User: What shape does this take?
Amino acid sequence: MLAKIELDLSRPNFLTWFQETGIADITNGSATVRVPNAFVKEWLENKYHKIILHAARAIAYDIKSIQYVIAKQEGGTTQNMHDSAARKRRAPQEQAPSLPDDMSSLHDLSINPQTNLNPRYTLDAFIVGSFNELAHAAAQSVIRRPGASYNPLFIYGGVGLGKTHLIQAIGNEILKTNALCKVKYLTSEKFMVEVVEALRTQSMNALKEKYRAMDVLVVDDIQFIARTEKMQEEFFHTFNALYDKNKQIIISSDRPPHAIATLENRLRSRFEGGMIADIGFPDFETRLLILRTKVNARGASLSEEILRHLAERITQNIRELEGAVNRIVVASKVSRAPLTLEDAKRVLASHISAPKKFISPKKIIKAVADFYDIEEGELVHRSRKKDVVRPRQIAMYLMRRELKTSFPAIGEKFGGRDHTTAIHSCAKIVRELEGNSELEEEIRTIREQALSK
Ligand code: ADP
Ligand code: MG
Assistant: This one.
């Protein structure tokens, strides 16, 4: 990995920043890079993040994120990027870096391009408590008899509470018993982008056929679809076509149908005609169980005291529980002694006490302009220079995604363009993002820079 970075950098640069740097851990698509001090950490994060990410992906292609932790190298247990590069040059037969045991399994966890399902979301890994047992039971019933028990199945609940996990697990389980079943998962935003795109290329019929040929259609975060009538209409027709053929439809939302203000009545009554199940907040014991399970799954162990502390602190979001586990487990892996409660609190505090960050159109424009090294003015005016077109599309996309700015308002911001230009720009980026992890990373970086402005 270091050898690859070395190729990309000048020698002094390389030596300055990558000596005493190594991989501490690679788990679940996230690599932890050990750095000797805060200064190097900051520098790598800000300046070499992309290069490091690319190099890391050469080892494990589905690494999505990199964390940097300050730690002294421990005796031989971590892989030193520098050493391994040196070894590479000397002995080609030793080229394969010694990776953590769970690396091989990473390869099984990529998203299935046919179904868009992530195999990580299984029913086995889904912990059940009173907060989600109704939704879980309904899911089981749908798995046993797709299309014949509850149709549609409508799952709703707050952020980070397992909606996506559960609805994808239904798809995965159905495929386990019937590999030929045509299952498709998508978010409602993806659906909308496809519709816009199909309208543009006059391929609406092909799109309709694609979805109508499904046996199981899983649509995540349906609340967004209620924003435009056209989309609701398209979805309504797709819904009916499937429903009439007894094909299973599974929908998630952040709130129940009656609380989605702009949802058309005909869609609402369709949704209410099926099974509606909510996911609430897990109680303390369940949070503990979730924490324990996640820690075990990462091959680590944390003291009871730490687990209870986390379960007390984080009450409303399972994704946050996971995030805390990840950070503390990484810290525990690079530390010599078992973590104390105080250590754990420190790890959490360093994350939580970061000043509240917010994003604004101005910050997005500045970050995009900086990133691509162009003038802000060029970005927002009617310049047709070729190297401005794409950054502008990305800025529009970010404004839409991060701030939910309306398309007409986006067009207005960028030199009084028409709203269809904004729609097409966003659609183009969404389309390109599919399977393009480099672009995804690029946009993630810009977003972070916008946040820090
Ligand atoms: P939502 O879609 O409701 O925002 P997700 O399904 O994305 O939430 O869940 C957030 C994270 O928490 C995911 O990594 C998921 O695997 C995990 N998670 C959620 N619910 C459970 C559960 N009941 N058991 C185990 N992990 C869960
Ligand atoms: Mg979700």
Observations:
- Residues 294 and 322 are 7 Å apart (CA to CA).
